[in-house]
Amino acid sequence: MAGGSFRDRHREPVYNGNVMRIDFLYWEDCPSHDEALQRLRAVLTEDEIAAEVQVTHVDTEELARALRFPGSPTIRVDGRDIQPETVAADGRLTCRLYLLDDGRPSPLPSAEMIRRAVRAARAPAAATNSRGGTQP
């Protein structure tokens, strides 16, 4: 897929320090992961966000536990889940439910939910830059 970086799921991801880091974790048995990845990439394009998207296929219970995988799909922006209040304490191979702004459950995060997480992660960098920080 264009725009994303794919790495061996057993290696530690390597990121460029000048761009936002986004981890997209999925389990192939959940049908919503393709649409969620498209939604994520659309938000990044629309908001002109430079980001490295690390796509990780979680395919074993062992890997799910090691990654503390709350279900598919999961999006983490700079290490923070986009909806941490719905994250289970343990990792497991399962489909995930997000709670939309109107309280309805959904197998997909909304574009606005993704956008809020990306903007929140970008805000500290923008504040640092405005105070003469070293980030571009």
Major beta sheet summary: 4 strands, mixed
Give me the number of helical elements.
3
Q: What spatial order of strands do you see in the largest sheet?
A: 2-1-3-4
How many DSSP E strands? 6
Rg (C-alpha, Å): 15 Å
Q: Give start-end ranges of low-pLDDT stretches.
A: 1-15, 128-136
Beta fraction: 15-25%
What string, H for helix and E for strand, traces the elements in order?
A: EHEHEEEEH
The helix-and-strand class reads alpha+beta
CATH class: Alpha Beta
Identify the CATH homologous superfamily: Glutaredoxin
Q: Rough shape?
A: globular
Supply the number of structural domains: 1
Do you know the CATH architecture?
3-Layer(aba) Sandwich
- Mean pLDDT comes to 82
Question: Helicity range of the residues?
Answer: 25-40%
Alpha-carbon distance between the two ends: 27 Å
Please name the CATH topology: Glutaredoxin
Describe this structure in words.
The structure is a single chain. The protein is an alpha+beta fold and 136 residues long. It has one domain (20-130): Glutaredoxin, CATH 3.40.30.10. Helices cover 29% and strands 18% of the residues. It is built from three helices and six strands, in the order βαβαββββα. β3 (74-77) and β4 (80-81) form a beta hairpin. The chain starts with 19 loop residues before the first strand and ends in a 6-residue tail after the last helix.
Give a summary of the structure in a few sentences:
With 136 residues, the chain is α+β, with helices and mostly antiparallel strands. It has helices at residues 33-46, 61-66, 111-130, and strands spanning 20-26, 51-57, 74-77, 80-81, 98-99, 105-106.
